[in-house]
């Protein structure tokens, strides 16, 4: 059996970094970890190929080769996934799908032969058994939460590492918190299931043996959701990294209580974490209480961000406007808040009601849900009737984005970040890093209207904190991408 695994295209979003990938001679930011893991679960007698359409287009020759086409997608990839399904069916192929987009919006996909929904470790074996017997059903679903040590290692051989900025692995699923707008609990459960340290180190060793030496994104919903287990794992991870001269620079997502645990911060720094994304959301206490983000209510975010960055980890933050408790003053508050705490990579979006979340159910009961969910919360798209009014919310949001990613405010945040950041992460300087710096000197230092801010920052970094120069150059390059995203949002 010839199985073609196809990963749909991401649109040009905040996290796609499409406009700056040429600086590092890459084609995509991250690989399709889900499909790489699915590949390891398929029968050993099957021939398997992978097409990541973020790297190369799906060709007719790919479809001609295949007997089966397997597609996995996030909500933001729905348009591309629909096109892939249509093309595969026109070519007469059996189409099998799974993943968040199909879990949430199955009705948007016609022509699919088999939906395999839920965590693959529990549902895929039943489908494969029936498929081999010729009695496969149209839909397979499971809400069972598997032991993650049953998850096979990704098939890295399907990738060309040179195409990607970072690799991805997963340590845990689920989150102990239950924010009203978040779909993690619906997808992966309340609480945090983890892989054993032994399993995780074997997985990282496989990536190491495959030849990868660079950034690794631990794609957990909340890496520190199970603090007891993560504190058992981190010293072993640090030892593994040290023995191999720190081949991986790590980044992940975590809750803000990370900042209150100095032991955990030290452990993550020792293990070579250099970035962490935190859902900060809003400076409004009323809005935090409204959405159930209790862990953020009493937090001094200025101190929290400084504490994390002093341990060598750049804080990337998620922010939201559009809560029912928000008033028209929230836009100015958000700008001032983000500038004051110095989060450079500040993803600010309009609140959206994701399917199966508590927010979605509440708004549905109130008759406030609308069509139009894109899955991309920085595209000024609304799928509900906001309390403050649609026009006020969207115009205020556009104003926030235009200010935050103006050269003056963006470079001010980099300077603020630099004042508290300790460049502690270890790792090699790659040829692509040097190329990126050289390209930035022309693209930003000469051509861009940000050139004055760029050179001022470069010289300041060289004089005061030269070890932070690679991070500062990266942030300057990312500024070009964020500026383009901001222009697109404002033009909507």
From TrEMBL:
One of its GO terms (cellular component) is cytosol. Its cofactor is [4Fe-4S] cluster. It holds the Pfam family Radical_SAM. One of its GO terms (molecular function) is catalytic activity. The keyword Secreted does not apply. InterPro entries: BchE-like, Cobalamin-bd, DUF4070, Elp3/MiaA/NifB-like_rSAM, HpnP-like, Methyltransferase_Class_B, rSAM, rSAM_horseshoe. Residues 161-391 form the Radical SAM core domain. The keyword Metal-binding applies. Keywords: Iron, Iron-sulfur, Metal-binding, S-adenosyl-L-methionine. Gene3D superfamilies: Cobalamin-binding domain, tm_1862 like domain. This is Cobalamin B12-binding domain-containing protein.
């Amino acid at each position: 059996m010839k199985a073609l695994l196809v990963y749909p295209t991401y649109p040009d979003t905040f996290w796609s970094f499409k406009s700056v990938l040429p600086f590092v001679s890459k084609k995509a930011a991250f690989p399709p970890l889900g499909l790489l893991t699915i590949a390891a679960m398929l029968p050993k007698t099957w021939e398997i190929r992978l097409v990541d359409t973020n790297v190369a287009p799906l060709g007719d020759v790919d479809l001609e080769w295949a007997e089966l086409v397997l597609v996995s997608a996030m909500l933001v990839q729905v348009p591309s996934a629909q096109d892939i399904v249509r093309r595969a069916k026109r070519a007469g192929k059996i189409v099998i799908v799974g993943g968040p987009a199909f879990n949430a919006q199955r009705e948007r996909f016609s022509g699919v032969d088999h939906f395999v929904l839920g965590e693959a470790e529990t549902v895929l074996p039943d489908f494969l058994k029936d498929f081999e017997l010729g009695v496969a059903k149209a839909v397979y679903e499971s809400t069972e939460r598997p032991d993650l040590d049953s998850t096979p290692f990704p098939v890295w051989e399907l990738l060309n590492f040179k195409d990607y900025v970072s690799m991805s692995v997963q340590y845990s699923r689920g989150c102990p918190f239950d924010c009203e707008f978040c779909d993690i609990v619906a997808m992966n459960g309340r609480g945090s299931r983890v892989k054993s340290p032994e399993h995780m180190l074997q997985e990282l060793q496989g990536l190491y043996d495959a030849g990868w030496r660079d950034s690794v994104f631990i794609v957990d919903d909340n890496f520190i959701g199970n603090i007891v287990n993560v504190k058992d794992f981190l010293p072993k991870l640090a030892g593994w990294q040290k023995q191999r001269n720190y081949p991986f620079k790590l980044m992940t997502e975590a809750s803000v209580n990370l900042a209150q645990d100095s032991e955990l911060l030290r452990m993550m720094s020792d293990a070579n974490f250099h970035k962490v994304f935190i859902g900060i959301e809003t400076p409004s206490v009323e809005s935090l209480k409204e959405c159930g983000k209790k862990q953020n209510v009493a937090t001094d975010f200025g101190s929290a961000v400084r504490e994390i960055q002093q341990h060598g980890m750049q804080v990337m933050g998620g922010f939201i406007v559009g809560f029912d408790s928000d008033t028209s003053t929230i836009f100015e508050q958000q700008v001032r808040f983000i500038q004051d705490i110095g989060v450079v990579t500040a993803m600010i979006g309009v609140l959206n009601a994701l399917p199966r979340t508590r927010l979605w159910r509440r708004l549905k009961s109130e008759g406030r849900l609308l069509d139009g969910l894109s899955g991309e919360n920085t595209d000024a798209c609304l799928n509900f009737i906001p309390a403050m009014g649609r026009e006020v919310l969207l115009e205020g949001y556009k104003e926030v984005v235009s200010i935050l990613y103006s050269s003056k405010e963006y470079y001010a945040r980099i300077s603020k970040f630099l004042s508290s950041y300790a460049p502690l992460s270890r790792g090699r300087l790659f040829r692509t890093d040097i190329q990126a710096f050289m390209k930035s000197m022309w693209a930003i230092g000469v051509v861009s209207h940000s050139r004055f801010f760029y050179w001022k920052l470069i010289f300041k970094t060289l004089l005061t904190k030269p070890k932070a120069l690679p991070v500062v150059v990266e942030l300057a390059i990312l500024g070009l991408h964020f500026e383009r995203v901001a222009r697109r949002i404002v033009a909507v």
